[in-house]
Every structure is written in structure tokens, then in C-alpha cells.
# Entry
Amino acid sequence: MSKNLAFTASALYTVETMDMNALFAAAQKAAEAAYAPYSRFRVGAALLSSDGAVYTGCNVENRSYGLTICAERSAVVRAVSDGKRSFTALAIATPDSASPVGPCGACRQVLSEFMPPEAPVFFAGAGPEQVSTTLGILYPYDSLHDFFNDP
# Structure
């Protein structure tokens, strides 16, 4: 990957101690398990927990589409079910798209519940273009946390 992927996040375990490329590789592997018979658009996500554990998720479609579960929320649910509540980085792989595809609005809202605004988010498709950003840039006005003075 050609872009500078050196990130820092204010948590116990950061991407400084885990290569973002390795996190993206985990997201790519997770995409292989996606259940996407309707859209044929597989998505994989890899979430780095503040203790260094990596939790992956994939999209699981339903013919109603509205009940489809995104890869990012799948990874969050998996991690929370394991007792984790703090995450420091996210990688998303969309192997069926030539261009990078970022998290949807619902996923951004859920991610903001467990990740700080400075947490790095990396996403790429099958093509050469890659996006390296932060949750705060993707979701700049987290009004619910601002309102309740949450971290």
C-alpha cells in the first residue's frame, strides 16, 4: 500500500503497535465470509480493540435489504459480545468495488459510541485508490456525545 499509514490514537493499543496493513488484511479475509447473494457486494471490517484484539465482521444481507447487517456493525457486535467497549482503529475492505467505500451513516453512528474521533479509519476496494482518515472526519458532529459530554 502506497500511502503513509502511520497513525496514532489515544488509547492503550494503537495502530503504532499494529500495522494498518495487517488490519486491512484481516478485513479482506472477513469479506470472503460475507453473505451477499442479492447485491453481490461483499464487505469486510476489522476493528482493533484497545487491548490489541482484532474483531472482524462481514455484511449479512437479507432480501428485505433493510434488515441487512453491515460489516462494521457486525464487527462491533462481535467485539461487544466478547466484553470489549473501546476501539482504536478500523479497516474496511470492499473487494467487489474498484473504488473505496466508507462506512454508512448508521455504522458511523455506532462506531462513534466506541471509538474516539481521532481513531484512524482505512478503507479500500479492489483498485489502487485507498482512503486513510479518522472517525472524526467521517462523523464530524457527534451531537449526542457533545450533548451528554461523553468521551
